[in-house]
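Shipment paperwork, digital attachment
Item: protein structure file
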Amino acid sequence: MNYSGVRETEVVVAGAGQAGLAAAFHLRRVGYEPDRDFVVLDHAPRPGGAWQFRWPTLTYGTVHGMHALPGMELTGADPDRPSSEVIGAYFDTYERTFGLRVHRPVDVRAVRAGADERLLVETSEGTYATRALINATGTWDRPFWPRFPGQEVFRGRQLHSSAYRGPQDFAGQRVIVVGGGTSAVQQLMEIAGTAAATTWVTRRPPLFREGPFDEQQGRAAVARVEERVRAGLPPQSVVSVTGLPMTEAMRQARARGVLERLPLFDRLTETGATWSDGSTVEADTILYATGFRAAIDHLAPLKLREPGGGIRLDGTRAVRDPRVHLIGYGPSASTIGANRAGRTAVREIRQLLRPDLRTAA
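Attachment content:
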């Protein structure tokens, strides 16, 4: 590659989390060479994807649904060790074992149409002219902050769950946790042990799932998310349709009253929250465990979005530009889904770049 100017490559993989590494693995497996035929660019400072930013008290033993990367199992991990350390070390070993040569930290700033049917990927280390893009940029960089009347007058602290570092930061405080997902429940249960009082509010009643989640249920849940993506709507998270798996820790928290949920408040005041029926809750901190949105603003120059606000996909391929594949997006936004999407994207890109292989595996 010529590092003094625009570098040409066959495939750019943007993002080195679960989805990006899975795609890079499959590119190598079918004969593509890193830094010759493809390049992996990662915004994060070190291996681990979004896992490296998880709060220290989230141990590996409490992680919900971590699936191994293709070609290498994660074995012998200490369940009491922080998940950020366990999975960060696993990803690091994976990158080195398969020689994926991830470039980091590299910001992907924009992707535009270039000459000769190539895409121009503008980054902090220069521009790549590529024949295909696998976008695996995830959601971590786009935490979703809901808007409520009175947010500007609340005198306490407001933070997003992405900035949560542990229950010690809430000792003796009155805390309102907003959100009905896995992070909301995990952080609420931790905070309840040190806070003076906790209040849990959600837009809809949370759905707790008892018992095993079989393959048929999993496929049905993914199909519901995929339906939105095929319609060009912003994707829902998979957990929003699968529900929250009830654990023993959750049962105990529910018995203690920690998981008693209130509907979403109507507005914030200087000292807390208020509802339309006149009830109020005093608070020192509002914690928004309200999820994330896809980090895809760099794709804006390609005009891939549909009127509904999302990018319509056929499998992993963007309908408006078949050179662009989104993985870890919508129905593949789970660790096992990301693995499968990485394989699918590589198969379709290989057929795009080598039409003579269209009937191959």
